[in-house]
Amino acid sequence: xxxxxxxxxxxxxxxxxxxxxxxxxxxxxxxxxxxxxxxxxxxxxxxxxxxxxxxxxxxxxxxxxxxxxxxxxxxxxxxxxxxxxxxxxxxxxxxxxxxxxxxxxxxxxxxxxxxxxxxxxxxxxxxxxxxxxxxxxxxxxx
Length: 142
Description:
Layout: H1 22-52, H2 55-83, H3 85-109, H4 115-141
Helix pairs in contact: 1-2, 1-4, 2-3, 2-4, 3-4
């Protein structure tokens, strides 16, 4: 009579549902605040560009933000894989915040025209190309 070995029954572990996991809730709060900030940024950038120039010039400023994001996103994924998505998300949010605050201060003190807005759009789009792949990789690590 052959003997078979059976694995001992594992004790069931009570897993915490995702909506009660503190890591998931922290990620959700951070992601929500970041997306709200992005939405406010795009509205403020387009409004400031229209105030400084014409609607067609505002469209050019918005395109300056979109082009580097589209061209550099694949490289942003490589950076996120190399450095880790958490560091990349935090770093890119900090850079984007600093850039927006710097241009907001400049616009508050003077009326320099569209060039600072275009520079901000270029920096924001470039950093956003690194942010998007990293934020997409975070849920799997949470």
